[in-house]
Structure formats: structure tokens, C-alpha cells
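Record pair follows.
FIRST:
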Amino acid sequence: MAFRCKGGVASVALLVAVAALASAAQGFPNPFGHEEFTDSYYDDTCPNAQSIVRSVMERHAAANPRTAPAILRLFFHDCFVNGCDASILLNATDSMESEKDAEPNATLAGFDVIDGIKSELERSCPATVSCADVLALAARDAVAMLGGPSWGVLLGRKDSVTASIDMAKEDLPNPKDSLAELIRMFEINGLDERDLTALSGAHTVGMAHDCKNYEDRIYSRVGQGGDSIDPSFAAQRRQECEQKHGEAMAPFDERTPTKFDNAYYVNLLARRGLLTSDQELYTQGCETGDLVKTYAMNGDVFYADFVRAMVKMGNIRPKHWWAPAEVRLKCKGGVASVALLVAVAALASAAQGFPNPFGHEEFKESYYDETGGVASVALLVAVAALASAAQGFPNPFGHEEFKESYYDETCPNAQSIVRSVMERHAAADPRTAPAILRLFFHDCFVNGCDASILLNATDSMDSEKDAEPNASVAGYGVIDDIKSELERSCPATVSCADVLALAARDAVAMLGGPSWGVLLGRKDSLVASMDMVKENLPSPTDSLAELIRMFKEHDLDERDLTALSGAHTVGRTHSCKHYEERIYSLVGQGGDSIDPSFAAQRRQECEQNHGNATAPFDERTPAKFDNAYYVDLLARRGLLTSDQELYTQGCETGDLVKTYAMNGDVFFADFARAMVKMGNMRPKHWWTPAEVRLKCSVANTHY
């Protein structure tokens, strides 16, 4: 059996994962705690849970007004370190350091409040309500007690059995962080710039405990413009710090430091934000700056966005779904071993009359008479992948780590073969390179870069090629020729997905654009999805807001969107319907209007060709990969709505259009970075079967 291959023992991680999958296959909750959250989670098992939390919170807050801000901060510091799992509450043990002892958590308080709530819950509902849910509820009640909004808390979290002091040091935002760094850290946790700006409003209450958190602002930024500080505010803070020898406490919001309101944002408008990480929301941010002004003028908008963002942050889960979890009996301690959890999962299954998930039952002839003996396909697929990983073999479903050197030993000439065939085709047909670049985009945006776009239709499957957005896509013959040469040189080695990624890189370079190292190791999908094409590919008439949303779904930000749109510096659109709205409806309207002479030229061509005119995206240098596309946008001569709105409707994107128009090197660098990022897009489900196709147009089972 796989667990005993080469005398080895299956890894604990594999056993843990199998236990979870076996439990799920039987319809039981995941024993590692990562179920769907609901606000009714304890309605049957502990109906008084929320009232108990609120009662204890009110008692502590009445005795100590610093309680509510402390609990709110405690929740933030928990969620940003591997999800909202109460790991922040664990004390150190002989084998584990506590997150409490990490430098960013040195001034945290409120642990005793959570312990007090948990004690009362244990008396009322033993071993039922997790410490993670206690903290989430207490944070909500803290905001409401301070005069802020309330909301329904989604419940069902479980408590981590471990803590990580290293992750606390790495993953928590720093008071001196730049806006760019804050945006990056929030994006890692699935939070956008609106969430960042709203959640930062928690600094409308609470205090900074040490001058070192803001000394750079009060000593270095006076009178500098940009992120400068109000001189009188800086002088006041300097005086307090010097009098207290650097240990002065200062409120984040000097106006109403004990009230949850929007005064924090009013302070930022006056450049009286205490921390660099606060002030930069207004002085360095485009989208965030606009939100600061909105929240300062309208507290109701701030409240609504804060609630939405708190729910979103409260849903941050551990990075690995198989991370062991439990409902702690005491929030500060009690770390169950993984072995114990695995054993309990088996015993619990047996107690319910179900098979032992680890297989050691009595054998009998009638074993499958009632069940039919068919294991869940998802379970079989997942277990196969996990078993393979436990033995050190690649994931059989193809989703390994990508690297540039992937074929160095197995097919060292792969990249030169791709380039050679690309050059031959491009010399014969100058439309080759733009077509291949477009083909790569259209593949990656539909369930990742898996070459699904190359598959022909079968009796049981429609082809993505036949979806309306792909009607004018070309270059399939080029990819087939490259693959044929690779098969002669390195049979069954180089995937069609990697061929397409390499060919797209070479296409850009052949057109005069940048080159970059392509990360390799993709595998080819066995299936295509026409429906996903229709849903996931951007449309030429999409608004900027819709484009931003679609790109964010693929972890691509506004910089990626603006840079990747620059691929329209080459190529042509094949039908007037893609831009007829712009050339007929937007002339002279301002905002997203179009240059009248450009519109007249395009209308004439469309009418002469009965709506079937082809037009270059970039009229200046349509066969050269350069930054002229962005120059066209500045002149409102962008062909598509989805192009022009980057400049006329976007704050961050508009600034980037101007930057790229003035500096082609910046565009080239950002384009290469974004292409690598897009090329790393994987199928949504890691267990999706994959292979190295022998022929790009058909799965191996049909070849």
C-alpha cells in the first residue's frame, strides 16, 4: 500500500488531510475546523453565547475604559497572523513561543477579558464556543460600546493548536509602513484599498504607547509637503515625547479619542495623523485619498464600509486548510497534538457506526452490498495527490512549483525550438506575434494558463475556440507546429501550456518589446469550458470598474491591468461592434469622450465596410510593441471603451497611463512583471486532473 512504500511512513500532514477528506466524504464537518461560517452557528448548541459575550464585555468596559479599544486591536492582530484562529491568545510552552511575545504585540491587552468571557461560556455551554469566535464577537461589541456600528458576526471558527512568533513579526503591518506596503499586506489577506482605508478607521479610538512609533513624522516631516505634518501638531507631540523620555502615550484621534466616529479622517485631512501608516492614506493614495475625504464628510458611509470590511477580515482563514484546530477549553493554553486529533477523528467515526477512515476494520464478503462501494471521486483524487506528495513525487494533477529551469535536464532545447518556429511563422505572416499574445491572454483568463483554449470539441465537450469572445482568435497552427517539433526532440515532456507561455514571451520580443524569464512547469487541462469563456473574459465594452473586478478575481491589481492592457499596442479589432458605441455615442461628451476626428475616421471605415472593418488598437505604430498605445489614450484616441476608460475614468490607472506614455522603460518593466504574474494563474481547484498532451488540440485519451 502507498503508505508503506520504501519502508516509509505516511506524513502526519497526509494523515491529517485524509482524515478531513474522509470525514467530508461521509457528510461530517471537517474535523480541522474550516467549515462555512454562519451567524446562526450556535443557535442550537449555545443560544446565549452572544448575550454572555456582551454582558462580560460591558462589565469590563465599565471598570476600564481602555477595554473596548484593546479588544478591537487584539482581533486585528489575531486575524493578520494566519487567519482569525485565536493563536494570539496562546501562552508559550516548552516547545512553542507565544505570539504575545512578538515585538509588534508587546503592548496588546485584553487577554484577561477574553479569558473571563470564555470561563462563563464554559459554565453555560462546555466545549462549544471557540475562542476565535469569542474574540470576533467581543470586537463587534467593543465597536458598538464605543458608539460605532454593530453587525451580524459570522461564526464557526475553530482555534489553532499552535502559534507562530515568526509570522507575527512578518505579517503584522508596521506603524511606519508606506501605503504601498500596507496595500500589499492587505491584498495578501484578500483585502482591497477600500477595506484598508475603512479598517484603518479603528484608529479613531486607542493610543500609541511609544514615541518610536511616530518619531519619524514629528521630527523629520515638518514642512516637507506631500506627507508632511501640521507644524503645531508635530511641536505638541515632540514636547510630550521629550518630557516623557520617549515613552509618551498619544491618542490616534486627538479630537474624540474614546468615541468611535469619523474624526480620525478629519485629522488626516488636516495632516494631523499620528502614524505614517495613517497619514499616507490621504497624502500618498489616489483611491485611499478619495475615501478619506468621503469618510470625513459622511460618517454613515464610513460605518457601512467598516462593517463590510470587518466581516471580510473576520473571514480570513488559516493559509492551509489542513491546519489542525479545535475548540479550546481555555483560550490561553491546551495544545492538542496532531496525533491525538487524528486518533479522535477515527474514534468519532467508529462511534457513529462509520468505517474507520484509516482502514483497519473487520473484513467481510458483504462489505459493499449496501453502499455500492464507490468512493467519492473528489476524495480519491485528493488522496492520490496527497499520497504522491507524501512520497516526494510531483502532484499527479500537475500543479507543482513553476521554475525557469524546469526543462533544463529533460528538454534543454525547448526554448530555442519555440523561438525558432515562432520566427519562421512570424516571417511568413506578420500577424502571428499579436495573435499568439492574444491567445495566451484568452487561455489564462479561463481557469488559469492550462492550454484549455487549444482543445478541439468532442462529442461530450464544447471547445473554448467556439465561444463568441474567441471567434477571431488565431495562432493555433503555430502552437501545433511548435509542439510537433518538441515531440520529435523531447517526446511527452513539454506541455502545451508552457509552449503557449514561451511563445507569448517570444512574440512580444519579436515585436520590439521586452523579454523575461518564463516560469515553467504548467500542465495541460483535460477539458475545456465554453461557459467559463463567456463568463471570465473581459469584453471590449466593459467599464473600468468591471475590468478591475475581473482582474482582481485573478489576483491582478490595477497596475497589472493597466500594464497588460498595453498589449493593445499591437494587433487589430475585427468588427465595428466592438467600438461602435464610442464612435457614435460619445463624441463631445467630455469624460470618456473620443477625439472627433478619430471618431469620424472610424465611422467612415465602418460604414464603407458594412460594419466589418478591421482597425488597429494603436494607430501610431500598430506593428511595434511600444508605449504609443498610452499616448493615444492621452489624446482620447483609444479604440475600445475598455482601453480609454483606463485614462478617463481611473485614478490610479489614469496616473499610470500618463507614466507609461512618458516612459516606455517603466511600461516594459511593469508589463514583464505582470505577464509573469498572469502566467502563474492556475486552475481554481488544485485537484483538477492534468497531463502533458501529446497533441495540443486533443487530450491524450482521444489521441
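SECOND:
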Amino acid sequence: MSDKRNWSHDSVEMHALDAGADDRRADILIVDDRPDKVLAYRAILDDLGQIIFTADSGREALKQVLARDFSVILLDVNMPGMDGLETAALIRNRSRSAHVPIIFVTADYEDEHRMAEAYSLGAVDYIASPVVPEILRAKVKVFVDLYLLAQQANRQVQEHVALVEERVARTAAEKATRRHAFLAEASVALAGSLDFAAIARETLRLCVPAVADACALTLVADAAETAPTKLRWPEHGGSGTQHESPGQGIGEAANPWLREAIDRVLKTGKAEVMPELSRATTDTPPATSDEPERDGVTVSDARYSIAVVPLVARGRTLGALSLGLGTSGRELDTDTFSMATELAARAAIALDNARLFEKIQEQDRRKDEFLAILAHELRNPLAPISNAVHLMHAAEQDRARLTWAREVIGRQLKQLIRLVDDLLDVSRITRGKIELKIESIDVARVIAAAVETSRPYVDALEHVLVVSTPAEPLWLKGDFVRVAQILANLINNAAKYTNKGGRIAVSACREGTEIVFRVRDSGAGIPPEQLSAIFEPFRQIDRTLGRSQGGLGVGLTLARRLTEMQGGRISAYSEGLDRGSEFTVRLPGASGVWPSDAAAGEPEAAVTSVPLDLRVLIVDDNRDVAHSTAALLRAAGCNVELAYDGEEAIRSVRAQRPDAVLLDIGLPKIDGYQVAEHIRAERMEHGPLIIALSGYGQDEHRLRSKRAGFDYHIVKPIEPKTLTGLLASLWSGRRTAA
């Protein structure tokens, strides 16, 4: 028997005309080793209009079964080799074909044993040969119809599944579209303003009703405390009107369980979800009679869900967004929670940008204010200096007036230098350029040094200054000069903000392992709301107080930063305006080890005598500075020449061979660094001493001076005695070395 696929003529014609109809017809397998029987069975079954396959052996039948699914198998029992029973057993062992109906055809119809074996192998019927065409056709038709019905049902199930999947995909696509549109709208809305309050309101507006039925926005203030909670909820009845609370404390805005959840989220920065809540489980007050009903159930009886999502930007938790769902029948599903998280992320970035913008505006305002103060403070000493100079010209023969004018100029010059020094110290601390010499310090001596610095200021305002220290010696670990500066700044601040004739007390004691300094005054006091801000740069409590005393508002900033750099801390206390104030400085204590002489205060004064035969070249494009410096050095016995730019300086050095060159950095044509390099490149037998005398005093300028060949770098203005003493000592040291 051929193993090829055999078709009835009608089936072949139908298949040729409409191949798509095959999936609505059943496959029938005829297995018999006799071709005449196969031909007869095919003729009988052709009227069913199905697709007929044939096999002439059990082995060939198994191949056919592996290739396709059959609605029914007509199987001869007596075949050579693998008989029908063995073939049926193998077909049943395969899971996919285990339930295919098998009709046995045999001439041994009376053999009950073989019939029982056939039924045990899963035969659905047993037909005697020769077959009756009508009976065979009827029995096969039953199984074909069952198969076709099953296939139809399967197709309907698949179509239904495909329809459901399509609907699900369409719904997901619509959700994604709405989500993307909402988030795009949110991004535009939140990015449209840099006003912090406006962004908070916009966040609430975006939440209700697009994401939740009600929401609460809790923000963390800059001072690490919780700001009031803003609420938003829809009007009952679904009118679309939204209500908003301008701000409540968390305790007023929520029940204890929600307040605790918000606190946890603010602390951990992780979202929390509370599904399936009810009024009973949250201890909410009972519903009022005006609460609407939905499907016969009041809102108070409905179950709802709440999520608390953190607002995180740049690693900081700025607040929490609490969302409530339930009154509208919506649930807090994954998509809603994801949308809430995305909105919270965008809101956090917008709020963070707004807060940064506010800080920038505040810093810009303070910068402008500082520049105005700086201009004012620089003009203050310039006015008396100008007046004194005018009087010196007008009263050249009046020695008393000349003495007074010189004293005024000296005092105001010191004020200018103090202002510049304060600014430079703030700059150095900010850039981490201050180096401290930490060692054991005698507390009594450092207080004495601070009092000595502040005494003229205190006496000028006729204050009473009282110093109190224990009888036993106290020691601390720190930098002597900087600790004295801290205390002097605090004493000056107390004097400045205390009315004339006030009282200032300075005390020191040991508390545990710390040395504690306290500076009290009877002055203007500090408002409680400004206590945390007084150590910020350029802050002054009352612009109307102490203006005659001047100041840039950096003294307390310096005191705080210098204290912290030495491992200490500083704090301020005041009972309020006109109640005085107290500043407390705590520094690490130390054992009683005497410091070196150099650490006890300022270094000893340099030798101030200058050899009369010293030749000095002064190079500065500011002619007043050049001529006034020349006059000072000539008065000290020096032979002085002048140059006003870099090229002239190089020519003068070559022509005059000076012993020392005072060289400004910022020169026209060739700057001071290049001039120094040219001089050193000359390789003179006795090269001049080169001193940078400049307004640039940062570390990078000093390092560059050293690399260019300068012997020393000093910052303008410098005390005349210091200049002449430095010049003499450095030159003396060089001559000794030579």
C-alpha cells in the first residue's frame, strides 16, 4: 500500500477550489495491509466530505499520527509485523494522540478475548469484517462531528481570547497614552513656575481627580522641620469643583496612623501603601448625614486605599504626597501608583528647583546688600581721611591740627585694613586655605590678647568690660591667633550692639573635657526668629543699630567657622530685643603644657634700622603709592629710584644694579612676575633682593611669586616700620650668607 496521502475525488476538488476550507474538515486515518479493503473503506467514507489518509502498516500509521491530529482512526487488527492492538497501544502512549477515537475492524469478531483487549487499549468501537457501509459511515460520522464541534469550540475560544487580548492591549495603550499625556502636562505645568507655593498648589491640582480622589502635600522646611500640610479634595456629588486647604499641621490634617506613616516616609524616603482601609480601622469620626450615597452605600462605609509617596530630589526628601482613593470607586492599582510616583518625582524636581531659585535670589539680594554696605563702610573712613588731608594743607603751621589729622588718618587706615582683612579671612576659610597651628594655649593669655585688641573699641563707647577666669590655669587645644580673633570678634560685636555705657562680661571655665568661653552684654538682644541666621555671612540683626560703628556682617561668620575648624562649636542666646545676648564658644581642653613663645602671640618685631647705603628700586604704576613708599624709605636712609612699568623696571635694574626691588604685580606692558623672571635670568653676580608688594594676597599669588623668583611677598598696605624692618632683616641675612 502506498504511504502517500490519498484523497477522495470530491475532497481533492474541494481542496483545490478552497484550500481555506481544510481547517473546517476533519482528518480520517484508515490503517489496513490490504489495498482492496482500503479502497473499499475510502469509497464508503468519501460521502462524509472529509480528508482521508491511509497507511498499510502499523509503523506507517504511527508516522501519520506523529504528523497530524485525526478525528478518528479505522484500524485493522490482523496485520503482519506490528498488529492493530500493538499499534493502538503505542498511539495511546503518546499524550497528544491518547484520546483519538480508534475503531477496530476484524474478521475475528467472535474472539471475546481479543475484543476485551481492544477495548482495554481504548477502542471506542469494534466492527466485524466485511463491514456494512451504512454502519461504518454512521459510526465514523459521529466521531467526525464531535471532532468538528470540538474544533469549532476551540476556534471560538481562541477568537474570544484574541478579542480579550486585543481589548486588554487597547486598554493598556489607551492608559499609556493618557499616562504619557498626563505626565507631559504635569511636566509643562510644574516647569512653568519657579514659585515654591505655586508649584505646591499645582501639584495638588494635578493629583485630584486625575490620580486620586483626595491628596495631601506635606513639605519639609529648610530648618529640617515639617511644614504645614496642604490638602485637596473633590466636592461631594461629583460636581467637579475642587476644594483646597491652605495649610494645616499634620496633626490637624490627618489621623495619628496617617501622621505616623507620613513621618516614616519623610524619614526613610520610601513609599508606603495602605490598601483596603475603612473608617472603622482608621478611627475616623463617624460620617455626617450629608455624605452622599453610591449604590446604597455611604462614602463613610466604603473601603478605600491610601499611598504616601516621598518627594525626593538630589538625594534629599523634600516632603511627601499622600493619595486617597475609594470615594470614586477607583482602586489603587499598579498603574495608579506608578503614575503617582512619576508625578511625585517631577514635583520634587520642580520644588527643589524653586527652592534653589529662592536661595539664589536670597543670595543675590544679600550680595547686593553687602555691596551697598561695603561701599558705605569704605566711604566712612575715606571721608575723615579726605578731611584730614584738607586740614593738613590748610594748617601746615598748626602742629596740633597736623597731629590730629595724622591720628585720624591712622585710625581710619586701620579700619580700612580691618575690613579688607575680614573679607580675606572669609575668602580663605571658604576655599579651605587657612592653616591652623594647633597646640596648648593658656586661656588667660588668649583672653588678654583678645581684650587688648578690642579695648580701644570698647573704651571709645565707654563700656564696662569685666573678665572672669578661674584661679587655676586653664589650657585648650587650638591656634592662639585664631582663638584670640574669635574672642575679639565677639567682644567687638557686643560693644557694637550695646548702647553707650553698657556692660560686657567675658568668662572662661572648664566643663568636662571642654573649655567654655562666654561673652555677655547688656545690649540690643536678638529676636528669637533670627538666632539661627546670625552666623551667616553678611547678616546683621538690625540695620539701624550700630551703623556708626560700621562692619560688614562677617565677624560672627568668622568666629563660627574658625571655632568649627578647631573642633569646637559656637552658639548664641538671647531673651529677645533689648534683653542683651550671650555667645558661648566651646573648644577642646588640653593638658597644662606651656606653648612656645611664638605661639603666645605675635612674632617679635623685626629690626627696623636700614643701612644707609641700601639702593632700592620701587616699581609701581600707581605713582602716589610709588612716591609715598619712596619717601618712607628715603627717610630711613635708602637711596631710592622709581619705575612705573615693567619694561622700565628691567632697564633700571640693568643700569643701576639695585640691592633690592620692591615690585608691584599688576604692571602695564610686562607684569611683575615676568619682570622678576627677567631679573633672575640676568644671572647677576649679586642679584637684587626682590619683594612683591601687591594687593594680591591669595595663596596662588604667593606660590606664583615664589616660582617667578621673588624672595618675599607682602600685601598692601603694610606698616612703614614693618616694611623697612623686613627690608633690612632680609638684606642683612642675604649679605651674611654671601
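COMMENT: The first strand starts at residue 27 and ends at 31.
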